[in-house]
Amino acid sequence: MEILSFDFLRRSLLGAALAGPTCALLGIITTSRGQAFFSDSLSHASIAGYGLGLLIELFAFRYFNLSFPENFLSAFLFLYCLGISLCFAYFLNKSKLESDTLLSIIFTGSVAIGILLLTKFVRYPLIESLLFGDINASSWTDIGLLGMVAVVTFSFLLFNMPALLLTMIDENMAISEGVEVKKLNYWTVLLIGGVVALSLKLLGALLVSAMIVIPAASGKMWAWNFRSLLLISLVNGFLGAVGGVVLSYYMDAMTGPTIVGCDIFLLLLALLFKNLFKKKNLKTIRNS
Fold it and tell me: Which residue segment(s) compose the domain that 45 sits in?
C-alpha cells in the first residue's frame, strides 16, 4: 500500500491504533460517571502547560545559557497534565465545590493563562498546531511513550474491572463493599492526564477530548452489557482513529479534524441503526 511506504505515516497509523482504543476505554469511565467534561478541561489546561514549558526553555537559555533535550517539552507537558489531574482529584475530595465548577475553573483559567504566556512572553507562532494537533509530527519516542501508557491503562482496567464497574453503578455501594474509591479516582484521573498529554499531537487541545468521549458514547448505542460496551468502544476507537489518518491522507485534509469526523460518523451510524431496530421492534409488538 502506498500509505505504508512513508515512515511518518507508519508512525501516525501506529499512534492512532494505540491512542484510539486507549482513549475509548477511558471514555467509558468518564462518560459513565458524568465526567466527560474532565478530559476536555484537561486538554485545554495543557495550553498553559505548553506555554510554561516554552517559557522555562526561553529563560534557561537567555539567563543561564542552558539548552534542554529535544523531548523536554513533551516530558514537561506529561508531568504538568499529571499534576493538574492530581490537583483536580485532591480539590474534588477536599473542597465543597462541585466537579463541574472545578472543571470550569481549570478550563477557563488554563486557556487564559496559556494564551497569555504564548502570545505575550514566548510569542509562539504555531498556536494552530497546538490547538488542532499534527499526528504526522510524532516521533518514535512519542509512539513508545503512548504504547507504555496504553499498556498501563489496559492493565489497570483489567485488574480493577469489578471495582470500577461497581463504582460506576453506585459510588456509595462500592464504598460499602470495601472498594477504595478515592484511590481508584486518583489512578483514573492520572491515566486520563497521561493519555491526554500524549494524545495532544494527534488532535490538539481543542479536539483530543473527542477521542475519549465519542467512541464510548457510540459504544453505548450498540452495547447490551458491560463486556459488549468495552469491546464495541475499543473497535469504535480504533476505526475512528486509524480511519481518520487514512482518510486525511487520501483527502489531503488535516488529520485531527478528520479523526473526529470519523468518530462522529460512527456515532451517527449507531444512532441510525438504534432507531431502525427500535421501530422494527415496535412494529413487531403491534402486529403480535
Answer: 8-212
